[in-house]
Amino acid sequence: MGKKSRWGVILDAGSSGTRLHIYKWKDHKKAVHGASAEELHSLPKLVTDKKWTSKIKPGVSTFGENPKDVGPDHLRDLIKHALKIIPEDKIEDTPIFLMATAGMRLLPKVQQTGLTREICSYLRQNTRFSLPDCDLHIQVIQGETEGLYGWIAANYLLGGFDRPGDHQHGKGHHTYGFLDMGGASAQIAFAPNATEAEKHANDLKLLRLRTLDGSPAEYKVFTATWLGFGVNQARQAYIEKLKDIYHPSESDELPDPCLPKSLRTTLDGAEITAEDTKGLSLIGTGKFDECMKLTYPLLGKDKPCPDEPCLLNGQHVPALDFDVNHFIGVSEYWHTTHGVFGGKDDEAYDFATYQKRVKGFCSRDWNAIESGIESRDRTDVKYAMEACFKASWLLNVLHEGIGIPRIGIDNMPGLNSTGVSHGHSKGYLDPFQPVDKIDKVEVSWTLGKMVLYAAGQIPPKSGDDRHPVGFGSNVDGIPPDFQFAGSSWRAPGHHGNETDEWLPEDGVIGRAKTSSGSSFLLFLLLLVMIGFIFRKKDRRLRVYAKLNSCCRRGRRPGSPRKGAYRGISNLTSKLFGRPVLGSTSYERVMEEGDANQFELGDVDSSGDEYSDSSEGSRYGGSGNGARTSGLATPKVNNLNGFDPLSVPFGLSALDRSGLVVRSDSSARLVPHLQVAGRRSRAGSPTRLKSPMAPQFQET
């Protein structure tokens, strides 16, 4: 049990909020059993479910000045949701990642470091997820990395990896480009055509995956990010531009062509009434053409381009070949084209239809727009207020910045110019198509990260580990900046002469478990031998007397007994019975609690049916701050309503040798909660098993 599926938890810490994603896939041995030739040449099959996600606002970056609050005030509810999904016996072997994006990149380095350290400490103390390496599992990822993960996710879901023959775009090209836009940044990732790939080889990333049969799969991908080009950051730059144009003036209202007519807002975008006249405000004019003109300069197309060619802000990007480079757009690319302007049932995007809808909406009076919002949900109202600016920014980035052909306007050979999309049935062959889900699975860069992790668990063909899973500079071998998948294909307890520097999980837990297991067996054998030799009472008494006499000779009269003497006295009292008259024994007593309150074993759980507000025992905290993925928390038989998340750092615990270690005074311990020990994990942290999508059942 517990060997047929693996799980993974990843937290996408964006600028506006943190979103939990859970993924599940079959263990490699299970996946290859009875697999067809086509399946063996495919990547691991990850599954997920809508119920396995959860989001909380605001973003992690808002805790930059108060990092201690990020755990209890932000992460706690997300972890609770994950523990409702993941089976109890899989938690310790389930890796957890928190990867922060643009919002955290905007913070000073010292605040980034403080937050990532606090997050790792919180997760280690309050969960039993596998977290062997803080730097690997809790990090602020670069925009290029985020884009590459997104590129993996899009191609994984579209079939560009597993079925390249079904996705031939010409010129030997079978992968799709990836575009992402959030609140603070925007990313692009694509595989250039053969000519551009050779010309700009030094600009590409080498990506290595591994199929179920152990074969390596390599791709050369270009990725770039534009920090400050997300919709929220772009709007801030736009407001500053309006202030430069219209202020100072006699009026405290700035005309805003990117707002619907007669809508009044603060500079931050909050709606204000006609009676509120405090401070500078924006008044909508509903002139979308003028809005497009004012947002265009924000693209930075006039910036110097030291390395031709460039797209946005003077940043180098290899030339795009839209005969073979077909892009998938996610996040704001989807929400802004399929939100308040309708188009929810559209298979794809075309410029002419979209622009017509936007102009019609943005020229309307705000009172008419607001009255037409059926739900009256303030979130929907806010989306409507922001829609015109977002549309203008998206159109400028897509067509003026990146150069996506405007279907319905631009005539290009081989492209559909009728405004009707090719759609999924023909493999997303338009130059650009916004998507939210593919085959009912959300397209998120987090999926790409977990695909990489799952592929790293597959053993290489013929034991060839010269091509580890991960990515780095486009050079042969393993470049110095290579980022490993973070997972290991070696079985638990593996020992060998191979270097395990890129396999941190098995390398630690395997050796620890083997060593402690061997020591325990030797100890049991020793006890049996001693019991056999001293089975008669007269022998026990004679040996005890000699040992006691020997130990007393080395001690001065009146001096305190040393630990060695106390240990021998305690041991002999247990082996030989009560000591002879006149001798004294030392017995260690656990403070303020009975030992039978606790036992070594899984953390007691009330099941999967508890509500979000409950504090289930799945939150058992770590016994010490330096816990590794190989040690679990003790089982509490009776919490009496006590919240394990509030247990103070430093309860008593067992070390890996089985010895009781005190790490705090009894004064700090909760009177009715004492811990008798910790146990080793039942499996290696690389045996990732996590709950996410119920597409296959365990047997």
Architecture overview:
This protein is α+β, with helices and mostly antiparallel strands and 699 residues long. The chain folds into four domains: 5-227 and 442-491, ATPase, nucleotide binding domain (Nucleotidyltransferase, domain 5), CATH 3.30.420.40; 233-297 and 351-426, Exopolyphosphatase. Domain 2 (Nucleotidyltransferase, domain 5, 2-Layer Sandwich); 507-576, no CATH class; 589-679, no CATH class. It is 31% helix and 14% strand. It has 18 helices and 22 strands. An eight-stranded mixed sheet has the order 14-13-6-7-9-8-17-18. It has a five-stranded mixed sheet with strand order 3-2-1-4-5. Strand 21 (653-654) and strand 22 form a beta hairpin. Helix 7 (143-158) crosses helix 15 (445-455), helix 12 crosses helix 14 and helix 17 runs antiparallel to helix 18 (563-576). ATP binds at residues 183-187. The active site is at residue 146. Residues 601-612 have a biased composition (Acidic residues). Residues 597-632, 673-699 are annotated as: Disordered.
Q: Averaging pLDDT over every residue, what do you get?
A: 74
Strand order of the largest sheet: 14-13-6-7-9-8-17-18
Poorly predicted regions are 412-427, 491-518, 551-699
Query: What is the number of strand segments?
Result: 22
CATH architecture of the largest domain: 2-Layer Sandwich
Overall 3D geometry?
Answer: globular
CATH homologous superfamily name of the largest domain? Answer: ATPase, nucleotide binding domain
Radius of gyration: 31 Å
Question: What number of structural domains do the residues give?
Answer: 4
CATH topology of the largest domain: Nucleotidyltransferase, domain 5
> What structural class do helix, strand and pairing data support?
alpha+beta
